[in-house]
Amino acid sequence: MNTDKNRLFDTQARAVFESLQSK
Q1: pTM given for the model
Q2: Cα distance between residue 2 and residue 13, in whole Å
Q3: Phi, psi at residue 7, to the nearest 5°?
Q4: Which tens digit of pLDDT belongs to each residue from 1-23?
């Protein structure tokens, strides 16, 4: 399992989600 890659994906997904929510 690549924890670092999974964490990076989660960080990007959260950033995108928050960006959409702020609109």
Answers
A1: 0.50
A2: 17
A3: -65, -40
A4: 678 999 999 999 999 999 999 87
